[in-house]
Amino acid sequence: xIIFDRTPATYQEGWAIIKQLLEKWHQVTLDWNExxxxxxxxxxxxxxxxxxxxxxxxxxxxNETMIKSGQWLLRDFHDINYRTDIDAVTxxxxxxxxxxxxxxxxxxxxxDPPVDGYSIDYQGRVQWDKPVSPxxxxxxxxxxxxxxMMFEGTGGYNxxxxxxxxxxxxxxxxxxxxxVIGGYHIFESEHVLAFIQDAFSDRTxxxxxxxxxxxPDHLPDCIRNNFRHQGSYYGPAITKKEQV
Length: 244
Hints:
Layout: H1 11-25, H2 38-48, H3 54-69, E1 77-78, E2 82-83, E3 88-93, E4 99-104, E5 115-120, E6 126-133, H4 136-146, E7 155-161, H5 164-174, E8 177-181, E9 184-188, E10 192-198, E11 206-212, H6 221-225, E12 230-234
Antiparallel strand pairs: 1-3, 2-3, 3-4, 4-5, 5-6, 7-11, 7-12, 8-9, 9-10, 10-11
């Protein structure tokens, strides 16, 4: 199954990718009945004095289903609330409990609203930090990719590479299924999911992240060639014999 066969044009297509990511790489199928979550939605709508957009509702349904099934698949913590101090609906709180991702109430009129980040100081005060993503579905897709080390599978690695253009060219040749979402150049085959973005430390370089299932003996050259740059890896390492 190839998940990233095109850039999602609607929130429905974005949510299809999110559910397929969970199904293929976490090996978990999560389905829900919207009617089971009406009270939670109604409570948030009453507190915010606004109707919740469909993409945000899907996020609530996913959270509730993960919690009820005992399958929390995310790195950070559940925290969906309307906060009057920031006039926004929070999506999640960072594991260190010092950062929120949230949707401003003024953006709840959009079907797939943008996501903003809010810092929490040592006294518990919450302050707006920055815009994070133009849509909720894009935020969730890139979030899942960022924490790909939590996927079920053989292994993967993260690396910083000096020549971004050459890296993209090599991966395009080795993994022809490619799309761009939120500045992430995503490459995929049946057993590999990789993405390239501007390096956080130096935008002239590239951050490469790779996840693979199955034997590392059969990885394409673009994956094996760049393992020598890895700053971290999980699962079995690609041995020198396996590297090109």
